[in-house]
Design goal:
mainly beta, Porin, 2 helices, 4% helix, 57% strand
């Protein structure tokens, strides 16, 4: 469906209860902050942080199976560079699948198992996201994803293969196989720390198009001690980019959050010895990023927050970001 027609289709589906979407759950969130970005020059921005609108549902089938589906779009309540934006709706996780005693099988466009393996250790995800310095935060299209049942009420295996679909790699070789790229993660515990006070994951990406052909290994650990939650992530990546330059990265993240009634204090540090720009070219020699923040819970689905980030790229390019935001889920 063309992007310009999508808002009308959504409005019609919500307004007319007889259409198929009547059985779906409508969900989403608006997350917007006003912030100051200082890279040598001060700039004030109104920034949307992965605000989204989604539809999901399921249908009971024979043989103990359930059909599942999801359509999720990023929405932009702000305007880039003070002008009109053509990205009012941007595709996020969109899939159809089946689940049963065997696990869950999904076909479509989805976050990779390696990306999902981070759990909740990135405390500033979507705001001052760790993808500024660490690879692997990718959503892969043409994907087949299988998630196993939980073993011993603790372990889960999540795997993904990328169908070639006629794309070409960095050397103009056609990718037409059933499994041109792969991603796999083994997780243990509970990333929300509700059933178990710990979370751990080991994940691997290899030759995914959305990860620019880079291979990445990621290890994650988190632990909750009463009101204190600690998190850590380490990863190493290597490969050859489209620029025909060798890529070799080691990076890590450590985080801590302390909850006091409606207030949560957060701190995070990220370091990487390599980074890539938006076009897949090596961008300097990595950097560091230190972020502090405070969340205040206004309601079950509403919070306000402040944050401050101090970063450094290539050992000499420094920047600071601070802002005040509001998040509303529905």
């Amino acid at each position: 469906m063309k992007r310009k027609l999508l808002p009308f289709a959504i409005a019609a589906a919500v307004a007319v209860p007889g259409v198929a979407i009547a059985d779906a759950t409508i969900y989403g969130k608006l997350n917007v902050s006003v912030r100051n970005v200082d890279t040598g020059e001060d700039t004030w921005e109104l920034e949307s942080h992965a605000s989204r609108l989604g539809f999901k549902g399921d249908a009971e089938l024979d043989y103990g199976l359930t059909a599942i589906y999801q359509m999720e779009y990023e929405i932009s309540p702000d305007q880039e560079d003070g002008g009109e934006s053509d990205d009012t709706f941007k595709q996020r996780d969109i899939f159809v699948g089946l689940k049963g005693g065997f696990g869950t099988l999904k076909l479509g466009n989805m976050d990779t198992p390696l990306k999902k393996a981070q759990g909740k250790v990135d405390l500033f995800s979507d705001i001052v996201d760790m993808n500024l310095l660490l690879d692997g935060e990718n959503r892969q299209d043409n994907a087949i994803n299988y998630t196993s049942p939980k073993f011993a009420n603790m372990f889960t295996i999540n795997t993904m293969i990328e169908v070639g679909d006629g794309a070409t790699d960095a050397d103009d070789n056609e990718r037409d196989g059933i499994a041109e790229g792969t991603s796999i993660a083994i997780t243990a515990g509970d990333k929300k720390y509700k059933k178990q006070p710990f979370y751990a994951a080991l994940a691997y990406d290899n030759d995914l198009t959305e990860n620019k052909g880079i291979s990445t290994i990621r290890a994650v650990a988190g632990y909750k001690i009463n009101a204190l939650t600690l998190g850590a992530l380490y990863q190493t990546s290597e490969g050859e980019l489209e620029s025909n330059k060798d890529y070799d990265e080691d990076g890590f993240l450590v985080s801590a959050a302390y909850k006091m009634d409606k207030v949560t204090l957060k701190g995070q540090y990220i370091s990487s010895d390599q980074s890539v720009d938006a076009k897949g070219n090596i961008d300097g020699e990595g950097g560091e990023l230190f972020t502090l923040g405070v969340d205040y819970k206004l309601g079950k689905k509403t919070k306000t927050y402040v944050y401050y980030a101090d970063g450094e790229n290539d050992g000499d390019d420094e920047y600071t970001v601070y802002g005040l935001g509001l998040e509303q889920k529905f």
